[in-house]
Structure prediction request, 777 residues.
Amino acid sequence: MSLPSAFIKNASAVAPVNDSFIDYASLRALVVDDYPGMRNALRLTLSNFGVVKVQLAANAAEALFHVKNKAFDFILCDFNLGDGRDGQQLLEELRHGNLISLETVFMMVTAESYYEKVAATAELAPDDYMIKPFSAEILCSRLESILLRKRAFREVYRHFLAQDLEAALVACDELMRSKPKYLVDALRFKGEILVTLGRFDEAETLYKQVIAMRAIPWARLGLARSLHLQKKDEPAEEELRDVLEHAPSMVAAYDLLADVCLAKKDGAAAQAALEKGVAISGKTVRRQQKLGEVAYTNGDLDAARTAFTNTLEKGRHSIFVTPADLGNLCRVQVEQGDLKAVADTLKKNKSSLQGSPEGKLVMAVSHSMMHNQAGNLQEAVKALDEAAVLRSTGTRCDPQMMLDLANVCMATGREGEADGIVAEVARNAHDSELLLAKARKIYDQAGRSDAGAAVLASATADIRKLNNEGVVLAQKGDYKTAVEKLLTACDEAPFNPRIIMNAVWVILKYIDQVGMDEKMMAIARKHLAEAERQAPGHSRISGLRLHLKDVEIRFGMNKT
Amino acid sequence: MNLDGTALYAALIHELKNNLGLLSMTLDSIPVQDEPQHDRSVGDARLLCQSVIDRLQQALLIYKADNQQLDPVIDAYSPHDLVHELMERTVALSRGRFRVETELASDVPAIWFFDRDLIEMALLNAIQNSLAYARSCVRIEASMLDGCLALFVRDDSDGYPDHILTSVATHTPYRSTGTGLGLQFAKMVIQAHENKGTLGELRLYNETGAVFCLILP
Prediction:
C-alpha cells in the first residue's frame, strides 16, 4: 500500500510503521504570520518537538508562492494577516485551487475564541485551530492527533481522491467499526459524500443519528441541508431557526437559511437572513455577492449597492471576485441614477478591469450604460463599438451583463445587434426563466414586445428541439445519433450548461454501448470542464464526473 | 475603530495576553541548566507567566460572555487525547519538580462531547493551582460517574481551605482573588455544558490532598 506523505514514508524506512509513530524531523512545515516576532517564536516552538524543516511566510501571497513551489505536510497559519487576504481566505484559495491535499494538515491560529464558531461549521474548515497564546506541548499534541486521524482516514481519502465514492463510503463504515475514536469524524465525512452523491435521504438519516448522540451544530446544519436538498424546506427552516435561536452567531446557518427562503420564494426573508450573516461576518465575499443579488432582485437598490460595494472592498484579494461583480455594482448605480458613482467605480477599478478581455467588456458595457443614462449618445455608441469589437473576438461576460449590453444597443437604435445578443443569451440559457423574463422586459420597455417574443422563440426553439431529440434518441438507445444532435446543440449554445451536461451524458452512454472512443472521450472531458465553469456546484456535475471516471477505469485510462 | 471604555480595556487585555504569550514561549525556550538556583527561578517565572496569561484569557472570556453565560462550542473529542495533552503540558510546566501521573479508567469511551478549549482551560487552571501547592505529585484522571465523564486533578497538598470548600458547596460567591477567580471561571465553564437537561458540575473536596473534579454530562 502506498503511503502518501513524507512523514510516513520516512518513518517506514527507519522503523516498522507503528500506528502511532510520527517522524517530526521529516515533517515539512509552513508558518504564516504577519508578525516577525511570532514567526520566529513559532519556529522555535516547532523545533522544541523536532519539527525543523520550517518555511516562514509573512502573508498569504508569500504562503501561496511557497505552496505552489513545494509540498508541505503541515501549515500553521495566523487568521489575522494584516492587509491582504486573511487566513480563512488563504485556506479557501488553497482548497479551491487544489493546492493542498487532504493529507496536508492546516491549523489556524486565532487570537479570538470567536473564530472557532466560524470554523465549527464552515464549509471550508481548517483541520484544527489554536487559540493564542498556546504552548509547544498543546500544539504538539493537537498536531499529533490530527496526523494520526489522517493516517486512520487514509483508505477513505485514497478512494475519495480516486473519486470512487462508493468505496470511500465503505471505508468510512470500516473505520467506524475498527476505530470508534473516529466514529464522529467518519460520520461527518460520510455525510458529505452522501450529499455529493445526491443520496440526501441517507444523509438525513445519518445526521439524525449524530444528533441523537449530541445535537452538535454541524450535524444540525447537515440535517437542514439534506432536508432542503430534498425540497423539504419547511422542516429545514424550522431546524435552522431553532439552531440560530440557541447559537445566533452561527453564520453558516444564515447562508443555508437564505437558500431555504429562496426555495420558498420568500426573497425578503432570504435577504434578512443574509443581512444577519453579513452583520456577524462581512468578510466572506460570497455572502456579500449573494446578498447583493438577492437585494437587487427584491428591488432594494440601496442594500444591493452596499453589498456589491462590500464585495469589491472585502474581496480585493479574493479569487471569488470577478469583473461581473463590478458590473453588478455599476448596474445598481446606473439604476439609482448616480452616474458620478459609476464613473468613480470604473475609474477606481480601471487597471484590474483592463487585465482581462472579460474585464474590458464589463467596462465597455458599464460605460455604455452610464453614457446612455446621461443622454450622452456619442460616448455611449463609442462604448458599444468597443464592446462589439470584443465580442467579435469571442469575449463574453455573464449573461445579465450581456442583457445590459442588449438594452443599451436597443436604446441607441442598434436593434439588430440587440436581437443578436439576446438570441445568444437565450440560446445559452433556454431553460432559465429568470434570464428570459429579464430579456422580455427589455423588449417591453422598448415597445418591441412582439419582436422580443419572436427573437426569444426562434433562439430557444432550435436548441430545445435539438436537445429534446437528443434526449429522446438516447432514451431509445440510439446514442450515436443522440451524440450528433447534442454536439450540434453545443456548437450553437457553447455556454449552455444543461445542453453541455446532456452532451456529456450521451457521450458516456454511447461509450458504454459501443466501447472506447478516445476522441469522444476528449470531447466529454472538455465539455464537462465547461459545464463546471458555467454552473459550478450544479447537482448533476458530480454524477457525470463519477460516470466519466468509471468509464476511464473500465477502459484502463486511469493511469495518469 | 471607536472604542468605548470597556471595549478599550478588552482590546488592551487582548494585546497584553498576546505579548505575554510571546514572553512565555521565550521562557519555554530557556534550557534547564542543572543549576538549582537558575532552574528554580526560570521555572517560577514560567509558572507565573502562564498563570497571568490564563487569568487574562479567563477575563476576556467572562467579558465576552452574555449575562455571565459562556457560549460553548461542543463537538466530539477524545478524553484520552485531552488527558494526554494536559499531561504533556503539566510535565513541561513542572520541569521535573513534580511527579505527574495520569489514569484513564477502562470504561471511559473513545469520544465524549464537550468544548475542548474551555474544559482544557479550566483544568489547566486547576493544574497551575496544584503546582503551586502540591508537595511532590499532581495527578490527572478520567473516569465514568453515573453516566457522566468525570475529569479529576488531584495533588498531595494540604487541600483546599475551608472557606473555598464552603463557598463551592453552598454556591455563594468566593472572594474574587487568586484561586477564587479561577474556580469561578471553572464553574461558568462546567455550567455551560448541558446535555438533555443535565448540567455539568464542579466538585471540590479534600482527600489526601486537593481534588478538583469536573463532571461532564
Q: What stands out?
A: The first strand of chain B starts at residue 75 and ends at 77. The beta strands of chain B are 75-77, 99-104, 112-114, 137-145, 148-155, 194-195, 198-199, 201-206, 210-216. DSSP finds six helices and nine strands in chain B. Chain B has two domains: 3-64, 75-216.
